[in-house]
Structure formats: structure tokens, C-alpha cells
Amino acid sequence: MTPPPGAVPPVRHPEAPAPGEPLGTHYEHCFGCGGAQPHGLQLSARAGAGVTITAEFTVREAHQGAPGLAHGGVLATALDETLGSLHWLLRVIAVTGRLQTEFLRPVPVGTLLYLEAEVTAVHRRKIYCSATGRLGGPDGPVAVRADALFIEVKVDHFIDNGRPEEIRAAMADPDQVKRARAFEVNP
Ligand SMILES: CCCCC/C=C\C/C=C\C/C=C\C/C=C\CCCC(=O)SCCNC(=O)CCNC(=O)[C@H](O)C(C)(C)COP(=O)(O)OP(=O)(O)OC[C@H]1O[C@@H](n2cnc3c(N)ncnc32)[C@H](O)[C@@H]1OP(=O)(O)O
């Protein structure tokens, strides 16, 4: 998780969404951010300054692991989704290669988890980033945090590996194709 010698600071893409702008979903059926997943996290993210993101996720009953508490895997999903959203600002598509999570406080059902993430370094296709999740809002105590390594891929990664039904449907949806293109500098 430590960037190698030769890693460089991330560069915000000139056409990245402005600070404060909501990012919307990258895919309606995404378990992390899609509106078409009733039990999904429906996490909403906003661009920050530089190569940073903020996001919010409210823990619901469907997200429990123990009575009244969020499942750790669901919290890891919230961190992964927030970290993945950073790539709107670099305008590259990237997938999670490594995700190291720390669980510092339990997160009760009904809690708003306030997430902040930043890209710390880039080395060729490797993107190093970190995130924290706070209870209740930006001034709340840190409940979860993560360090991650994302690997840049082209849109073909999804076309070649995804199940044909969903890929066909996504490619037939002009909004989906536009969203995928918005990640790619050279589509
Ligand atoms: C028209 C249809 C469109 C549909 C798409 C729609 C939207 C898409 C747009 C946006 C999506 C983006 C954001 C979404 C937001 C959040 C979602 C959460 C993100 C996820 O939840 S995503 C799912 C989980 N994720 C995976 O499903 C990955 C499975 N995996 C693989 O698919 C391969 O494994 C891959 C591609 C990662 C690498 O394979 P590869 O062959 O391309 O690359 P290669 O091996 O050459 O590695 C190149 C350099 O990365 C280093 N490296 C590689 N892997 C590493 C690892 N794990 N640890 C440490 N270093 C690693 C190497 O050491 C080398 O380093 P070096 O350059 O220094 O030599």
C-alpha cells in the first residue's frame, strides 16, 4: 500500500466535476451507489477540491451484521464505493486491487456515515488512495478507514468480463455509455 519511488501526486482532470457537484451513479444497478438496488447502499458522492471526494451513506436495517449494527462488509463497500468515485476526478476507469480496512467504532443502524476520500499518489496504472468514515457528519468520530490500491483499466475490462445480458443492456443505454466515457480521457 506504500507508493513506490517514482510515484507522483495525482492531477485533477481539467474537466472534472466542480467542487461541491454531486457525482450521481456510475451504474443504476451498482450495489454501492445505484438507485435500482432497493437494499443497496445508495451512497451519494460529491466532488471535493483537488482529488478528493465526500460521500454520505445512511445505514438501514438491510445492512445489519449484528442486532442494530452495520455489517463490516457493508462498511467496506461504503469505503470501496467512495474510493472508486475518486476516479471521476482523474477521468480514468479503475478497479479495486487492494482494500485494507480498519473498523474503529461500531456503526448503529440509522447512522449517517460521512465519508471523505483522497488520491495520494499515482504510479503508472496504480492509484493509491485513502478514506475515512465518520459517525453523523464531518465533525463526528472516525468509525472506519481504508487504504486502497486501484488499477486503471479500459472500458473493455467490463465488456470482456461482464455477463453478456447486463453488458448488452448497458451498451444500449446512451446515458450509461456517456457515464462510462466520462471516465476515459481517450475513449
Ligand atoms: C458499456 C459498459 C460500461 C459499464 C461500465 C460502467 C461504468 C464504469 C465506470 C466506472 C466504474 C468506476 C468506479 C466505480 C466506483 C466504485 C466501485 C468499486 C470498485 C470495485 O469494487 S471494482 C471490483 C473489484 N475489483 C475487481 O474486480 C478487480 C479484479 N482484478 C482484475 O481484474 C485484475 O487483476 C486487474 C485489472 C486489477 C489487474 O490486472 P491487469 O492484467 O490489467 O494488470 P497487471 O497485472 O499487469 O497489473 C498492473 C500493475 O498493477 C499491479 N497490481 C495489479 N493488481 C494488484 C493487486 N491486487 N495488488 C497490488 N498490485 C497490483 C501490478 O503489480 C502492476 O504493477 P506495475 O505496473 O508496477 O508492474
Number of domains: 1
Number of strands: 8
- Could you name the CATH topology? Thiol Ester Dehydrase, Chain A
Unreliably modeled segments? none
CATH superfamily: Hotdog Thioesterase
Biggest sheet: strands side by side, in what order? 1-2-6-7-8-5
| Helix content range | 10-25%
**Small molecules held by this entry:** ligand 3IX
- H-E string: EEEEHHEEEEHHH
- Average pLDDT: 95
Tell me which oligomeric state these chains represent.
single chain
- Proportion of β residues? 25-35%
| CATH C-level category | Alpha Beta
Q: What's the overall geometry?
A: globular
GO cellular component, one term: membrane
EC number: 3.1.2.2
Main location: membrane
Protein name: Acyl-coenzyme A thioesterase THEM4
Could you explain how this protein is built, in words?
It contains five helices and eight strands. It has a single domain (44-174), classed as Hotdog Thioesterase (Thiol Ester Dehydrase, Chain A, Roll), CATH 3.10.129. With 187 residues, it is of the alpha+beta class. The strands form two sheets. A six-stranded antiparallel beta sheet has the order 1-2-6-7-8-5. It has a two-stranded antiparallel sheet with strand order 3-4. Ligand 3IX is lined by residues 26-27, 32, 80-81, 84-85, 87, 93, 95-98, 124-126, 149, 151, 153, 155, 158-159, 167, 170-171, 177, 180, 183. This is Acyl-coenzyme A thioesterase THEM4. Belongs to the THEM4/THEM5 thioesterase family.
